[in-house]
Amino acid sequence: MIPRRRVLAGLASLPFASTALSKAAMAFSDGAPRLLGTCVRIEQLEREPQLADCLLSQFGSITPEIHLKWNSVENREGQFWFEPVDRLVTFAGKHDLRLHGHTLLWEQGTPDWALHAISHDKDWGLVERHIERVMSRYRDVIRDWDVVNEPIDTQNGRDGLRRNTFQKTFGSDYIARALQAAHHTAPNARLLLNEYGFEYDNYIEVARRAALLKLLEKLLVAGVPLHGVGIQAHLDLGKGPIPQRDVGKFLQDIADMGLAILVTELDVKERDYRATLAERDARVSDEVRRYLEVALAQPAVESVTTWGISDRLSWLQVEPGDRVDPNRFGPAAPNRGLPFDGDLQPKAMHTALLDALQAR
Ligand code: XIL
Question: In whole angstroms, what is the distance from residue 193 CA to residue 124 CA?
Fold first, then answer.
């Protein structure tokens, strides 16, 4: 375990080398820092030293991409696998990186045995014990936790909340109960809800913004321990221009509730893969600029985390319906929505991130 002080240390102690971003990050060390983070998988960092070097020269915070989720730590009932997270904690301690706790409760990240047991036994103790087990192990090294991931669904949900196993079994109160359990286990932790789908001007995302604000207000009025919101920010070039005024108002409304805001999973889904790489990269970086222009104008936004370092390892894939030129597009050519390409070369999106962080 690394001492909490070291993990939470300011940017001055972060291992930024003489890269452009190090200057950008350093520029914030006097004011409120705007950390740049990324999600990682420890085995990828161990396997590929260049990836680890890239991470260490550019990023100050890491989020476990999969290994902290319930279906990883306890994929089979009672058989615990904390080892990859423990290795990540050691890595973070060695390099003075901050760690982000992702995530305690997410239906898609819950093993089938637990989903069945929850709906069958209706035993909240099962959920509570999971939260306690994971948080107590890492509470000295992780301050910020995505306690509930993706609780909003305005299309098939009830009252704006997703009809997941937790909601169906325990009612909408499961969110407050999870936050309370987390607070009980780690009274010094900052507890967040983490959610996607707030960036665009369509009726779904308009409704999602309203639903999240309503949920936050309800929790805060009830005195539930909640300290911030993770905005995933999975941008999408198929959804039209980002309505900056609406997004800015939304972030202001969250800030007005006294909550911290963290951009937790930034990346860009392309929809048209037929242009040249330079054109595609320009579209991606323009989108990031447009988003961060409004996001970083909000003082409550503390950090920006990208959902990965390199396009080669991104979770984003070409999907059916995307426009692809069969002559140009080989099976190995990935979506280009992260700051570094498959060879770990920085792209226009990297410059957009630097500029946005610096322009504060
Ligand atoms: C994704 C990972 O990137 C994938 O590797 C994994 O298979 C599924 O989860 N929202 C979240 C993240 O909160 O946990 C998801 O990460 C991406 C969407």
Answer: 19
What distance in Å separates the CA atoms of residue 173 and residue 32, rounded to the nearest whole number? 34
Q: Give the span between the Cα atoms of 308 and 289, in whole angstroms.
A: 18
Nearest CA to ligand 1 atom 8: 66
d(CA 29, CA 50): 27
pLDDT one-digit tens code per residue, 197-219: 999 999 999 999 999 999 999 99
Residue nearest to atom 5 of ligand 1 (CA): 315
Ligand 1 pocket residue status of 165, Cβ below 6 Å: no
Q: Is the CB of 66 under 6 A from ligand 1?
A: yes
Q: Which two tokens stand for residue 8?
A: 């939470």
**Separation of alpha carbons 25 and 11, rounded Å:** 7
Q: For the segment 294-332, what is each residue's pLDDT rounded down to a tens digit?
A: 999 999 999 999 999 999 999 999 998 999 987 766 655
Q: Estimate the crossing angle of helix 203-221 against helix 174-185, to 10 degrees.
A: 50
267 lines ligand 1 (CB under 6 A): no
Which atom, in ligand 1's list, is nearest to the CA of 264? 13
Question: CA 204 → CA 154, 160, 237, distances in Å?
Answer: 7, 11, 16
Neighbour tally for 64: CB within 10 Å = 24
Question: Is residue 28 scored above 90 in pLDDT?
Answer: no
Residues in the chain: 360
> Which DSSP helix (H) or strand (E) runs through 40?
strand 35-40
Q: Which CB contacts under 8 angstroms, 24+ apart, belong to 184-188?
A: 184/132, 185/131, 185/132, 185/135, 185/136, 185/139, 186/135, 186/136, 186/139, 186/145, 188/139, 188/143
Among 40, 63, 66, name the best residue to mutate to test ligand 1's pocket (greatest count of ligand atoms within 8 A of Cβ).
Answer: 66
The three-class DSSP label of residue 299 is: coil
Q: Is the dihedral of CA 1, 82, 152, 158 positive or negative?
A: negative
Cut 0.90: pTM above it = yes
- Measured by CA distance, the residue closest to atom 16 of ligand 1 is 65
Show the tokens assigned to 154.
């305005």
Which pair of tokens denotes residue 197? Answer: 């789908």
